[in-house]
Design goal:
Structural class: mainly alpha
CATH class of the largest domain: Mainly Alpha
CATH topology of the largest domain: Four Helix Bundle (Hemerythrin (Met), subunit A)
CATH architecture of the largest domain: Up-down Bundle
Shape: globular
Radius of gyration: 19 Å
Order of helices and strands: HEHHEEHHHHHH
Strand content: under 5%
CATH superfamily of the largest domain: GntR ligand-binding domain-like
Helix content: over 70%
Strand order of the largest sheet: 1-3-2
Number of helices: 9
């Protein structure tokens, strides 16, 4: 397990101090710069970020609500170590949530909302397959799922989807094979086709199948790493 190393916090005008600490820790966790199981001492984090303990305490409390940090009885925070069962259940919940969200979105989304997703997918498909493409794919994937969730018209559903996608990012520390990302892009096109024709059942089933593919992939990754 690596030692905790954080750079002094750079304040951003649009973020409160608590939000800035939260975003800094969140990025470090989901990027893998902070390993699973790492102890997050409020004193150490505050010292490294050069802030007081209060915003660190509040940020860690939010990360605990998100499921990315665990607090023991002595209130010591530790980065969550996801088990095989955790990963399986997170994907099951994503299927239960994002399938119906796509079904609802298919009845509500119009060309004005769908065309940017289609354009982004086409631009991605035309790019050379390199590390820059991998990063561009991640940006598109986040935009794609967020847009569909928010287009469901159900704010609670959208928030829950965001939470479980955040947990997904919490254990997705591996460099995914380009072939798997290519497959996912083709599945995105299948979902887009269903949304554009307002075929709600097809959109739901395509979204569930897409998430199930990733569920199988990550379960295999976990099996190989244990």
């Amino acid at each position: 397990m690596s030692d905790l190393v954080l750079s002094p916090l750079s304040l951003q005008p649009h973020l409160s101090l608590v939000d800035a600490v939260y975003e800094t820790l969140l990025e470090a966790i989901v990027s893998g710069r902070i390993d699973s199981g790492t102890i997050l001492s409020e004193v150490v984090v505050a010292d490294q970020l050069q802030v007081s303990r209060t915003p660190v305490h509040d940020a860690l409390r939010q990360l605990a609500k998100d499921g990315l940090v665990e607090r023991s009885n002595n209130r010591r925070a530790k980065v969550t170590r996801f088990t095989r069962d955790d990963v399986y259940e997170i994907f099951e919940l994503r299927k239960y949530l994002e399938g119906p969200a796509a079904e609802l979105a298919a009845l509500r989304m119009d060309r004005r909302q769908l065309q940017p997703l289609r354009d982004h997918a086409d631009a991605l498909a035309a790019k050379p397959r390199d590390e820059e493409w991998r990063m561009a794919w991640a940006v598109f994937d986040e935009e794609f799922h967020h847009t569909i969730a928010s287009s469901s018209g159900n704010s609670r559903l959208t928030r829950d989807i965001g939470r479980y996608r955040l947990l997904h990012r919490g254990f997705n520390k591996t460099k995914t094979e380009l072939a798997s990302l290519e497959q996912a892009l083709s599945e995105h096109y299948e979902i887009l086709d269903a949304l554009e024709t307002h075929d709600s059942v097809r959109a739901r089933d395509a979204m569930i199948a897409h998430i199930a593919t990733w569920q199988t992939y990550f379960m295999q990754v976990i099996e190989l790493s244990t």
